[in-house]
Amino acid sequence: MGIIKFDKVTQVFDDLCVLKNITVQLAEKRIAVIGANGSGKSTFVRLINGLQLPSHGFVSVDGLDTKRDAKAVKRKVGFVFQNPDNQIVLPLVEEDLSFGLKNLKLSRDEIKERVDEILQRYDLQAFRNHAVHLLSGGQKQLVAISSVVAMKPDYIIFDEPTTLLDLRNKRRVTQVIEELSQTAIVVSHDLEFLKKFDRVLVFDKGEIAIDDVPFVALKEYIRKMS
Questions:
Q1: What angle in degrees, to the nearest 10, is found between the helix axes of 93-103 and 108-121?
Q2: Is the pTM of this model over 0.70?
Q3: What are the φ/ψ torsions at residue 131 (nearest 5 degrees)?
Q4: Is the pLDDT score of 149 beyond 90?
Q5: In this protein, which residues make up the domain named ABC transporter (predicted)?
C-alpha cells in the first residue's frame, strides 16, 4: 500500500504562514480535504505532487521526496484543477488526451490504445475530434479528468472538481471519482459526496483541526461552522 508523508511541513508565502508544522501520513483509498477559504487545504494538496514545494520540512510519496524526485513524483500523482480551462492545453479533444502520453515517451500505438480506451470509458467517443472550447463545462471537466487518468498515475488529486458544474455534471464527475481504481484525494465543499470517503481532513488556519472518518469529521465540521 502506498503512503504519502508530511514531515513537519510549514509553507510560507510573502511572510504569510499558510501551513503550520504539518505531520501526517495518508494511506487510505479515498481522502477528503475540506476547510474554509484560506485554511490551507489547496496548498496542502499542491504539495503532494510538487506543484508547490515546502518552505520547511519534507513531503514524500511512496518514499520519493517531492524536492529531490520531482519528476518521478509527478508521474505518480495526477492533478485535476477546479477549472478545466487551466488544464486543457490543446484545441482538440484527442490532441489534448494524447499530449501527456507523448511526454511519457509511449509509442504511437500505445497512445492510440490508451486514448481509445479512455474515450470509451467516459462516453466521449463522439467528441474525439471536437474543439475543446465548444464543449460544455461538464464535458471539459471530463476531458481534463480523462487526460490525467490516461497517464495511469497511482494517485489523483482533485481540487474542487465540481464547483463550477451544474447538478447533472456534478453527479457525473462524482461518479467518475467513485469508480477510480487509483487513490483519490479530493478537496471539496460537497459534504454529501464526502460521506462515502475513508477519511476526512479538516483544515483551519493552516493546521489540521480534525482528522477522522467522515461521520465524525463532518459532524464536527458542521458543528463548528454553525
A1: 130
A2: yes
A3: -75, 130
A4: yes
A5: 4-222
Q: What is the pLDDT of residues 103-134, one digit of tens each?
A: 998 999 999 999 999 999 999 999 999 999 99
**Can you give the length of the chain in residues?**
226
Q: At what angle do helices 108-121 and 137-149 cross, to 10 degrees?
A: 140
C-alpha grid cell for residue 156?
Answer: 489523483
pLDDT above 90 for 226: no
Give the C-alpha distances (Å, rounded to integers) separating 96 from 53, 78, 168. 27, 15, 24
Give start and end residues of each alpha helix (H) in 77-213: 93-103, 108-121, 137-149, 167-178, 191-194
Segment (H or E) for 6:
strand 4-13
pLDDT of residue 2: 83
CB distance 189 to 35 below 8 Å: no
Query: Beta 16-26 vs 30-35: how paired, if at all?
Result: unpaired
Q: Is 144 within 8 Å of 111 (Cβ atoms)?
A: no
Domains and CATH numbers, the chain: 4-86+154-225 (3.40.50.300)
Calculate the CA dihedral of residues 72, 73, 78, 84 and round it to 10 degrees. -100
Residue 1 has pLDDT above 70, yes or no: no
SS3 202: strand
